[in-house]
User: Which sequence fits this backbone?
């Protein structure tokens, strides 16, 4: 069944977040702050491993620059936070901010990309199952520290991973070429993983409080990179 892995992942995050929200009030504010910082440090460490294997640094750099400019021009981050602010409760973390951070943490990464590709093309959701277990644990601690936005990120997982998996399912490997160039090549997958690593590095810095980013404005880089990859392969 296509999307079975995504459905399980969504339920896992919803369950972990719900438990985290129920127990979060029993965790002191200092402990909650430390939990967020630990997640930030772990995210930074994980991102470094993703970045180091990039194939085409120039393509990645251009995709990040163009993606960030596009996100800023469209005002993605500000518009979403404005929309999400209607769900905020006084004395709690911003729902929009927590949703963005949690969704990016759960969805931006090589495990998501490869897992959705495996499920969409071959029906193999084993990697997504492993991810679901990790997300279940992570969402529990994140929700206890960041609040209700983490619970809503389950919808973000359903939408993002669902669309990615369905894209692989309907497009299929036979349509992964353009003008003779292989679009979904191992090189592109590696560079998408590296680009995701840069976004996770920014997220890690944001979570630790070292540097704040308009995180949603950076996401278009992931859609810009395949276009740059096609142009690069056609020209060179």
Assistant:
């Amino acid at each position: 069944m296509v999307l079975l892995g995504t459905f399980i992942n969504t339920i896992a995050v919803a369950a972990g977040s719900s438990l985290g929200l129920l127990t979060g009030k029993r965790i002191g504010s200092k402990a909650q702050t430390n939990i967020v910082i630990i997640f930030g440090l772990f995210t930074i460490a994980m991102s470094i491993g993703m970045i180091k294997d990039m194939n085409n640094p120039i393509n990645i750099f251009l995709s990040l620059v163009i993606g960030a400019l596009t996100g800023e021009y469209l005002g993605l981050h500000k518009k979403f936070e404005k929309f999400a602010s209607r769900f905020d409760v006084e004395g709690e973390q911003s729902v929009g901010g927590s949703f963005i951070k949690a969704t990016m943490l759960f969805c931006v990464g090589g495990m998501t990309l490869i897992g959705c590709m495996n499920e969409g093309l071959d029906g193999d959701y084993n990697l997504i199952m492993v991810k679901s277990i990790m997300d279940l644990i992570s969402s529990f601690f994140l929700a206890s520290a960041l609040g209700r936005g983490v619970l809503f990120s389950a919808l973000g997982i359903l939408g993002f991973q669902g669309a990615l998996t369905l894209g692989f399912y309907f497009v299929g490997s036979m349509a992964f070429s353009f003008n003779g160039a292989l679009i979904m090549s191992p090189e592109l997958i590696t560079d998408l993983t590296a680009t995701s690593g840069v976004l996770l590095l920014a997220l890690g810095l944001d979570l630790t409080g070292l540097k704040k980013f308009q995180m949603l404005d950076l996401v278009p880089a992931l859609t810009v990179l395949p276009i740059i990859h096609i142009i690069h392969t056609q020209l060179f």
The mean pLDDT is 88.
